[in-house]
Amino acid sequence: MTDLPSPPLVTGPRDMALLAFERLPESHRFDGDDAPLGYVLIVLRHEGHTLMTYQRKRACWELPGGGIEPGERARAAAVRELREETGQTVPEDALRFVGYAKTALGPTRHVLRGAVYAAQARSRAPFTANDEVSAIHWRADGSPLPEGLVQTVDEYVVGLCEEG
């Protein structure tokens, strides 16, 4: 179990804690670090709404995102994950890098970093449920989501994207 700083910036359901948000250059490397870069998150907005996904496995509303495949750049992973999970497409050069989220995940408190990107969608593509995501919701600022848990860590990250 990793010792966590006290207190985390925010905690959420499913044993998640946001330990830090680092506004480092996108080119920063975490080689040999105790919290390697392992995932991406995308804050996609369209006409004042933020895209949220209902993740089947965790039964929770979250931002789109996911793991970075071996040899894949984080920016490319963000484009791929967004398309795979939601059907939305954004070119790599339309993504704005915001920073790195450092999170403790699950009951083992495994610590990873995630590259966080923000983008504006030109339109809303149709959604088809898939193995990972059962629903999407374009959330107006401050409005409630449909029934179910909400990953408060991701909500906090949305606010950080608007600050930067």
Automatic annotation (TrEMBL):
Q: Name one GO molecular function term.
A: metal ion binding
Q: Which UniProt keywords apply?
A: Hydrolase, Magnesium, Metal-binding
Keyword Cell membrane found: no
Cofactor section: Mg(2+)
Looking at the record, the residues that make up the Nudix hydrolase domain are 32-162
As for family, the record states: Belongs to the Nudix hydrolase family.
Instruction: Quote the protein name from its UniProt record.
Output: NUDIX domain-containing protein
Q: Which organism is it from?
A: Streptomyces daliensis
